């Protein structure tokens, strides 16, 4: 009797193993697959032609977040949107936006600046980064001198944040490279260097309207 039971157990085990087919890789039917599996696209890899083809399939893909949404982990939402071409309304309004950071890691802020900004604006914030290199670099126009030029020393933090977020003139947006908090950290670092360059003067963040307006027109 025991032999029959053992033999039956072996047969059942073999049958079960064969029916499983080893590793099961087919999940079978998935309820609401769009909720379970996202379509992954490279941020900068999708062309306008590819977007048009996706649209024909009913896929609305624009590389940008849905208006009014905030990504997970976002701590300091910036409510001003990018101005339309030829408009500067929100750029001017950004002067009133205050930096929400009350404390930060200054070493990390410096690292973020050196990694993301120094290539153009220079490690010394003098506008002489590797891309300009005193006029011998590949970039023909000298980037903004963040320390040493009254226009940028007078620029309010909110306006700097707008420029870093949406880009301004020759500078592109850094919103995909730096999170909201890190953008503010970089700006605090810049302002600290500006203040250190004028220890006996007024705060670099305080400026006259004329200075700010001249900056906005550049």
Account of the 3D structure:
By secondary structure, the protein is mostly helical. 42% of the residues lie in helices and 0% in strands.
Work out the radius of gyration: 28 Å
Q: Could you tell me the mean pLDDT?
A: 80
Shape: elongated
State the separation between the terminal residues, measured CA to CA: 95 Å
Low-confidence segments: 202-218
Structural class: mainly alpha
CATH architecture of the domain at 89-216: Orthogonal Bundle
Largest sheet: none
Count of DSSP E strands?
0
**Tally of DSSP helical segments:** 10
According to CATH, the homologous superfamily of the domain at 89-216 is: Cytochrome c-like domain
What's the helical proportion of residues?
40-55%
Secondary-structure element sequence?
HHHHHHHHHH
> Which strand-content bin applies to the residues?
under 5%
CATH class of the domain at 89-216: Mainly Alpha
Tags for this model:
218 residues, mainly alpha, Cytochrome Bc1 Complex, Chain D, domain 2, 10 helices, 42% helix, metal ion binding, electron transfer activity
Helices and strands in order:
Blueprint (H helix, E strand, L loop, with lengths): L1 H19 L12 H4 L11 H9 L32 H5 L12 H11 L1 H4 L28 H4 L3 H10 L13 H18 L11 H8 L2
Helix pairs in contact: 5-9, 8-9
TL;DR of this structure?
The protein has 218 residues and is mainly α. Helix content is 42%, strand content 0%.
């Amino acid at each position: 009797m025991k032999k029959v039971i053992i033999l039956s157990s072996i047969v059942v085990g073999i049958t079960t193993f064969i029916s499983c087919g080893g590793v099961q890789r087919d999940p079978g039917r998935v309820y609401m697959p769009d909720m379970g599996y996202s379509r992954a696209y490279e941020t900068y890899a999708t062309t306008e032609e590819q977007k048009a083809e996706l649209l024909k399939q009913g896929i609305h893909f624009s590389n940008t977040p849905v208006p009014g949404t905030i990504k997970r982990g976002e701590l300091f939402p910036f409510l001003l949107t990018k101005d339309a071409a030829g408009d500067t309304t929100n750029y001017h309004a950004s002067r009133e936006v205050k930096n929400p950071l009350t404390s930060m890691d200054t070493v990390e802020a410096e690292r973020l600046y050196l990694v993301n900004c120094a290539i153009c604006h220079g490690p010394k914030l003098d506008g002489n980064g590797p891309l300009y290199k005193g006029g011998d670099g590949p970039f023909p126009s000298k980037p903004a001198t963040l320390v040493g030029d009254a226009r940028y020393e007078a620029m309010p933090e909110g306006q700097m944040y707008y420029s870093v977020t949406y880009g301004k003139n020759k500078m592109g947006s850094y919103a995909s490279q730096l999170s909201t908090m890190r953008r503010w950290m970089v700006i605090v670092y810049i302002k600290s260097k500006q203040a250190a360059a004028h220890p006996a003067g007024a705060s670099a963040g305080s400026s006259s309207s004329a200075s700010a307006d001249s900056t906005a027109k550049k």
